[in-house]
Amino acid sequence: MKKRIERINELYHLSRERELTAEEKEEQARLRREYVEAFRANLVSQLDNTYIVDENGNKTAVKDRRKQQG
Description:
Strand content: 5-15%
Low-confidence stretches: none
Mean pLDDT: 89
Number of domains: 1
Oligomer: single chain
Radius of gyration: 19 Å
Structural class: mainly alpha
Shape: rod-shaped
């Protein structure tokens, strides 16, 4: 993940200096997509392991609440 972010940043800085080639633009778009997908998957995983405790001490999994809401 760290190398992916470093490469995204490299391409960004390069784009500030000159026009990116078609291949570099494709790589940048692909890396950004992969990063966003990994970020979302990580967030969903965290939410799936998160519980809400009500005033009576009852635990409800966040993933269960998402299913109830639609």
